[in-house]
Amino acid sequence: MYDITVIGAGITGTFIARELSKYDLSILLLDKENDVANGTTKANSAIVHAGYDATEGTLKAKFNVKGNEMYDGICKDLDVPFKRIGSLVTAFNDEEMETIQCLYQRGITNGVPDMKILDKEEVLQMEGNLKESIKGALFAKTAGIVGPWELAIALAENAVENGVELQLNSAVTAIDKTGEGYRVSAGEKTYETKLVINAAGVYADQIDQMVNEKTFEILPNRGEYNLFDKSVGDMVNTVVFGCPSSAGKGTVILPTVHGNLLLGPTADPIDNKEDTRTTFAGLTSINDHAKDTLKKIGFQDVITSFSGIRAKVATKDFIIEKAEGKEDFINVAGIDSPGLTAAPAIAEYVVEMVRESASALDMTLTEKEHFNPKRTPSIHFMDLSTEDQKKLIEKDPRFGRIICRCEYITEGEIVDVIRRKAGATTLDGVKRRARPGSGRCQGGFCAPRVMEIIARELDVDMKDVLKDGKGSYVLTERTK
Amino acid sequence: MLNYEIVVIGGGPAGLAAAIEAKKNGAKEILVLERDLELGGILQQCIHNGFGLHVFKEELTGPEYAERFIQELKDMGIEYKLDTMVLEVSDEKMITAMNREEGILNIRAKAVILSMGCRERTRGAIRIPGTRPAGVMTAGTAQRFVNMEGYMTGKRVLILGSGDIGLIMARRLTLEGAEVLGVSELMPFSGGLNRNIVQCLEDFDIPLYLQHTVVDIEGKDRVEAVTIAKVDERYKPIKGTEKRFECDTLLLSVGLIPENELSKSAGIELDNITAGPRVNEAMETSVEGIFACGNVVHVHDLVDWVTEESRKAGKNAARYVSGELKNTASKISVQGVNGVRYVVPQEIRPENLRGKTEFMMRVDAVYQNVKLVAKSGEEILKSVKRRHVAPGEMENLVLDFGEMDPKSIKNLTIELVQEEGA
Amino acid sequence: MDKKEMICIVCPVGCHMEVVKDGTSEDGYKVSGNQCLRGKVYGIKEMSNPTRVLTTTVKITEGKLPRLPVTTKGAIPKGLMTEAMEAINKVEVKAPVKVGKVILKNLLNTGVDVVATRSMDRDSRYQSQKVS
Q1: A180-196 average pLDDT score
Q2: Full domain range(s) for residue B199
Q3: What distance in Å separates the CA atoms of residue A243 and residue C127, rounded to the nearest whole number?
Q4: How many domains would you assign to chain B?
Q5: Do C67 and B393 touch (CB under 8 A)?
Q6: Which chains reach chain C with 3 or more Cβ–Cβ distances below 8 angstroms?
Q7: Domain count, chain C
Q8: Is B30's pLDDT higher than 60?
């Protein structure tokens, strides 16, 4: 019998599980995919928003600002890349200047600190690559960029280190009410649990309706992106937003924590929750935005494109509440932008909800004596001093062999991310944790070598090493 | 700090030929740095034949060609390090490298030869829309898996790009039991040799779809289908011409890009048409004493030309170390115009020319019955007839400056002139 | 087959030729579209007895790599490619191997041997073992 079962190991679920792991509770974290963070968490803008955009008085507004403040501490403890580079909402005409004034006011109401309306000269000083036709911009100092899947992976690793049980490839197919709580059928197994927390992203409505009356529907909405090589990562210095309209926050041009340039997203309502295609029209529209906004941008430097699905709901606000009349089922749904930013604050809030229901569920939230909030820092060989590099190679020669030529990642780093809790088991799993395959050659050079290492570490044949999801075999059979 | 006269970065055919020639021309302390577990570079996975027709007057396979040079290098006692990655080359010829046994290496060289080869253009770079499942792979990576690790990469295959790598893999996969459904090529002509069209496609009845490109990829975890469509003169897909293939693999053979990250870190000037360093008649880059040869300078079609070019680089690197190579003030630029897309070398120093000098080039389209014309200013130096030229086939032109007064040589151009008649 | 259209592969011009069976002509065929004699020779050969060099890999044990590249030492009849692959796939060799070593003699009675196209050392893991 588990005290709590969290369904969904994306940014929301992993934050919640890690928060709960501070207490003496048995916690189960389930995900239908082959790795954590394999849904929307791995395909978004990676922005930690300042908080002026959310409508006043909503949960989004409250948790955006609160979550933003928490990012330094969390990322330091978990050794996740995070940079507060600030954001600009650009205005190229009078109407847009009015819009950014409104956003400024809204920011004040929402409690966003350190904002300023900049004039043309000030904007161009900050971002020289913006077109001369810029009129002004709303600058927000507290906005930043983070590694979203790195954060979710780090949270999962830390949660498992602190006693959470993680079960992947465990799609929940049924939830049945029992005397003491619920029986959750997932993967090939069933789990008994006192409390269910539904953080299932685009599938949150389907999970909810397994055992509750329908109260919300997830409206999937797709966003496409282009990712550029690091050589053009300095095209902008801050998170540069186009002026928002009724369609959404507007297209963004921003550096990533790794030094690439990211451009996107589009916003297209779709029918199929699995439709992560990129489209010619979508990618062209974001490229056009970049051409209209920047003086200089080179599309020959695009190294990959991707898309993510937002879990939108009709009320346009987070749904964080107990199911109707229940103490033992909490929905954390409709977590679209600013979900990533709000996640730490949402997790804190959910823990309080659990605390409220605890006695009714025969649970006590006693803090663990040996909770370790920190994660062993990951090793970035190329960031070490020459002295440290030499020592590391002497200690472990695997750090002396470079596997990923584009990003200069060593075998030692790859072995490390495979061996950690909630570690990598696939090519993309290694890519998201250690970077091979993220560079110019997109894995063309290193894929055979990374697969060899995974096969060796997990003691499987190379042809059983997957790219990402369960059916994503790379090799079919040995040659005859 | 290690010290060498010449350090060669890359132990493939270019680096091997350069190192050997440098030794033959008097250099003594030479070190070849190779990141893979053995020498030979990309040739080790090119198990097909067609190599060496010019250099050895024999038709060899890639590994055989490589072994000739590897053996010669070993017989000459030239030092090399394997499993060693070069991290940085400075413009002062200081090299930082690393390997398991020795850790971080700092090497000072009197001359450096860059021979890092090239990488394959990726799906992201040509922005194919659709899903991003397993089963989309560049042809060279598939070639490595099949020929060296010994694994098949798919059962039903569509290939994008009719350059030689794509054609070779069409045959290879078919012989190993896969079904190759077709090759889609953007241009109205194939980028590969006729010999490969015949022996890789026609022999196996594999259709070639010219003026087509991939417009969609389907499949969540693994490729399930690929759709191609015909393109117009501006390479835009034409609605209604889509052909959908149910398959599990899309192999990409859409171009090679010289791998010049190290060259950039040394401050070497790159040519934005070749994507390689601008070199002079000695295969020297814009940084004195740093030479370059092979695919890192421009993508070659035959390894025989790589060997010739690399021998030039090796010989001149040795001459540079011994002080024989003159860095003269007068530099003449060499440009491809009117149908000639680029020429290597991009620059010559007339005082260093000793008689015949070879220029390598590629044209920008298929032409029949043309003349390759080399001019010094307005004066025609040489005019050669060509019945057939194509972008996929490198052309060369030898100019003899022997009798000319170096000061009279003006900026050179090489162009195509259409001949009359069929 | 009495008539075949083909692209000549002898030189880069790539003449589009037509080869027709012709009892009246000296060598039994009429070739058109070629711009030189080498093309005619190639065209007739392709028509009457097309041959190909076959390159592939065989399984190698105790080597630095699991596959050893090989080639037919000469061309074999084009029609035998599939059978040839089957015959070669049955062969397994053990390292060390020297380039040129015959790994399959007289492939399918063509008189053509299959040889290794590279040398391969024994992997260091097996160095201490006796060579059996």
Answers
A1: 96
A2: 122-254
A3: 68
A4: 3
A5: no
A6: A, B
A7: 2
A8: yes
